[in-house]
Amino acid sequence: MAWKNIWRNRNRTMITMASIYFAVILSVLADSLQDGVFDNLIKNMVSYYTGYVQVHKTGYWDEQVLDNSFESSIRTEAKIISLNETGGLTGRLESFVLASSNDQTKGSLLVGIDPENESKVTNLKTKLHEGDFIKADDQSVLLSEGLAERLNLRLTDTIVLLGQGYHGATAAGKYPVKGILKFGTPAMNDRTVFMPLKASQDLFQAYGMITSYILLVNDTEQLNTISAAVKKSLGSNYEVMTWEEMLPDIKQHIESDSRNMKFIQGILYLLICFGIFGTLLMMLEERKIEMGMLVAIGMKKMQLAILLLLESLFTLLSGCIFGLLTSIPLVYYLKLNPIKLSGDAAEAYQRFGFEPVFPTSSDPEIFLNQALVVLVIGLVLSLYPVYKVIRLDPIKSMKR
Amino acid sequence: MDTVIDAHNISKVYNRNTIPVYAVNNVHLHLNRGEFTALVGPSGSGKTTLLNMIGGLDKPDEGNIFINGQDITALSANELIDFRLRNIGFVFQSFNLIPVLTAKENVEFIMQLQKMDKKDRDERVLQLFQQIEMVDKLDERPSRLSGGQQQRVAVARALATKPQFILADEPTANLDSKSASNLLDIMAKLNKEENITFLFSTHDQRVIDRARRVITLVDGRIINDTAAVSTAHQQA
After folding, report:
1. A300 vs B81, B90, B100: nearest CB
2. Which of A38, A102, A201, B52 is the S-S candidate for B57 at Cβ 3.0 to 4.6 Å?
């Protein structure tokens, strides 16, 4: 009977189902876009460069100079690997240099990397836009696309690097460009030079030294546990930092954006409430006489309330299921073909250091959570007809 | 005679705290099994209020109502719902069939509430539709039935649970003459052949003419009861 009742007023049911359907799609899209954009942001900063955890000599993060570097040691590496068996580890030597070509110069970040290990820990290799990736014994560099443009350098051209080496030594060298990397975040794309670790140690005369170990953590939920364990194991000579500590701006941005999105979702949920509640009120008014008659002839109020709840449940479930069935392919499509801003809007995003790309996240939790939220909202609102039935007076209800 | 309805000194008062208005004022009513009774009176005379109280839909402010010996004024709201289901059949002025159910399902529904098993339900439905002469309309939705047919289905629904009596509030008010006549024929036949008790509230002269007992209510009081008159005549 509940199923038949749903279809007694086809238009009303369709309106209710449509409001639930679109509510699920919109809330899933909003949530998956938010998560997708944040994931992308984190991926751009973490997976391609920062890593999830870094180990430095204590004090390095506050004063990022080569004198705060430390000796790379197989023993230290073994300790770290034992605590993060599923992840990976690579060493880096980083310092600031002046990069120049002809009459163009730009302050840049020079990063010495172990090409083989780096590929296991970060996705740096996937950012190769032109040319080839460097090898451990190369004497060449990879330039970020923005820097190459700024210095007007192409593949096989030579870049001159000038800086201060370890313990005040002068660092200067000429290197051919072997490849061009393209990063999503302008902060990385406009000023980064990568060279093999050995070459960078030679350039800075910091033989055997590194400024950081970069850790890949496969299970990001274990991030803080692994970080704490490494910290404990290495002792006070080393500082161990998670990406959230190293990139507090990103963390703050994510938190503040999440709050904004929750507010927007709140408004969306409120609209859903009005939509569902409106149709429930219409239904109650339309069936007032019939409900009075049912109680008059001997239907228990609880039976009637259950009937109305079942009707709501069918409508809500149908709307949620169809909403989910539509949102799943939509989210996957937008994940594979993310929304890309262009023109002024894209530039505005880039100015603030963000990639103007909006992929979606296909985390199953998003679909489940949003469908559940809409379902719960609907079920809570469905308690109103139950309340009305419990207070129903058959004589008053049957009055025309 | 077997007493079905026995109402003692029942009153219903509105605006008790300001200017009290007696919808029903100290009414005594006694109905035996098999009676075919019309409750008549002008609008506002208290017919529907009296019917609602006898049907357990409303409670009197004073007095008691016994149905088959059971004091229904002492029952709780939930007990009253159950009592109505098992003992009273209702026929309403506007038929009030459930639009999404077929004629058969409308009648079967009340038996489902009584938890009657499927086989008994099917037998009873068939028997009832034979009685209301609508076996060919079992699977029709109410919207495809005429007003008279809908009211006959409502009578079948009222009879489905084999109640003690049927309360019919203006059952012919929305029917044309022919449909009203057909309906009255069926109800009279049920009354005669199955000894079913009917109590109508009505303005309709056709119902009054067919009733074997007519109770006239004015301003909440019974001013005339043909049964009392005939008893007085018999005693004289």
Report:
1. B81
2. B52
